[in-house]
Amino acid sequence: MRASPPFRFRLIRLGPCLALALIAAACAPVTQAPHVDPESAKAEAEKQRLLVVERYVADLRRLNAIAFRIFAANADFCREKGKSAGAFGFKVGNAYSFPKDFEAGARRVVGGRGLVRIVAVAPGSPAGRAGMREGDAVLALDGTPAPKGENEAATRDFGKQLAEQVKTGNPIVFRVQRENEEVEFALHPVAACAYGYGIDPKEIVNASADGKSVQITSGMMRFAETDEELATVVGHELAHNLMGHIDSKRGNIALGFLVDLLFAGFGVNTGGVFSDMAGQSYSQEFETEADYVGLYLMARAGYDIAGSPNFWRRMGVRNPGSIRTNHAASHPSAPYRFVSLDKTVEEIERKKAAGLPLRPEMKAEPVPAAAPAGN
Ligand SMILES: [Zn+2]
Q1: Per-residue pLDDT tens for 77-97?
Q2: Phi/psi of residue 266, each to 5°?
Q3: Ligand 1 center to 133 CA (angstroms)
Q4: For every residue of 259-284, which 3-state class applies, written as one string?
Q5: pLDDT tens digit string along 125-134?
Q6: For the chain, what is the domain count?
Q7: Which residues, at least 6 apart from 212, have a Cβ–Cβ distance to it below 8 Å?
């Protein structure tokens, strides 16, 4: 006869079963939720994807307006670094720049039929002043048919064709389809910093510069509430590129310009390149310099810089770790940053009041030793 196990042992064996039964009872829903049929859920998914595309395009338009203004206002600085090129102030794209899931929504927001569309027009830019509109489909450039096709390559080829024609230095005639009519615009490009800019569709509050372009995350687009705040971020990132803080061997003027035309960031499927870039860290000195030069770039574009120190203060409050002084960190501490920016605002305002040119102060060049007199 088998002896029955001691009571304690039986309890140990029963324990997990009891616990599972209790958990199951505790977790089971007790209310009767409405039945959701798969078709309604599918339709709702489409609606939500459409909203994602709409928000993305709205962000891109906001960024385009601010970045174009800053990039054009600082063309002379960029020219000194060999980084200026002709720009029109628009961004192009098509529905196929988005991942497959989002194509239907993108066709409604951007427009379909395989034509390359004007997706963003910066106010005050050559495109904006000429009356080009978001949604215009480009049919021809200077009489040559514009690339088209139900694929991402059409946008890329358009960028290449336009870059070639810009090199002539002549105005370019754009023929566009607008609803049922065809309209022509002769646009003269203006000089602008030859870096791309785009939206990185991530919710993290971040921005990055890779020597070729400036990327702002969707999260930063929400965090930077006013245009001045977004201009503060764009100025800071442009300063990283301009001051050569990133190894720019991979970049060149033509490519930077192309990235811009190619609607950088419009392709949500950037393959994570920009997120990798965002992980790059720069030294505290470079960060301080980007803050300093960035405010000048912003002021030169006519933006009010008075609120910029407080914007970085808000960043500091959002990330309390940055309030500590940490000399090993890639970014200066938030208090240091605030005080330094506040002094920069004073410096710039003083120059503006005195009618002095708005140029960042450079460290004095070391005086070369006098050459020995020869005979
Ligand atoms: Zn930075």
Answers
A1: 999 989 998 999 999 988 887
A2: -65, -40
A3: 34
A4: HHHCCCCCCCCCCCHHHHHHCCCCCH
A5: 999 999 999 9
A6: 2
A7: 195, 196, 241, 248, 250, 251, 255, 256, 259
Domain assignment present for residue 359? The answer is no
C-alpha 238 to ligand 1 mean position (Å): 9
In terms of residue numbers, what domain contains 99? 48-192
Tokens matching residue 288: 């301080």
Comparing CA positions, the residue from 197, 230, 189, 193 lying closest to residue 213 is 197
Is the domain of 217 the same as that of 97? no
Are 96 and 103 contacting, i.e. CB atoms less than 8 angstroms apart? yes
In contact, 280 and 246? CB cutoff 8 Å: yes
Instruction: Tell the burial category of 312 from Cβ atoms under 10 Å away from its Cβ (0-12, 13-18, 19+).
Output: buried
The reply to whether 172 and 225 lie within a common domain is: no
**Confidence tier at 230 by pLDDT (50, 70, 90):** very high
Alpha carbon of 229 to ligand 1 centroid (Å): 15
Asked, for residue 161, whether it belongs to a domain, the answer is yes
Query: Does residue 34 lie within any of the structural domains?
Result: no
Q: Ligand 1 centroid to 292 CA: how many Å?
A: 11
Instruction: State in Å: Cα 215 to ligand 1 middle.
Output: 12
Taken in order 199, 204, 207, 208, the sign of the CA dihedral is negative
The CA 218 to ligand 1 mean position distance, Å, reads 17
d(CA 6, ligand 1 centre) in Å: 68
**Domain at 108, CATH number:** 2.30.42.10
- CA 284–ligand 1 middle distance (angstroms): 9
Look at residue 3 and tell me if it is in a domain.
no
What's the CA-to-centroid distance between 278 and ligand 1, angstroms? 10
| Residue 216 sits in the same domain as residue 239 | yes
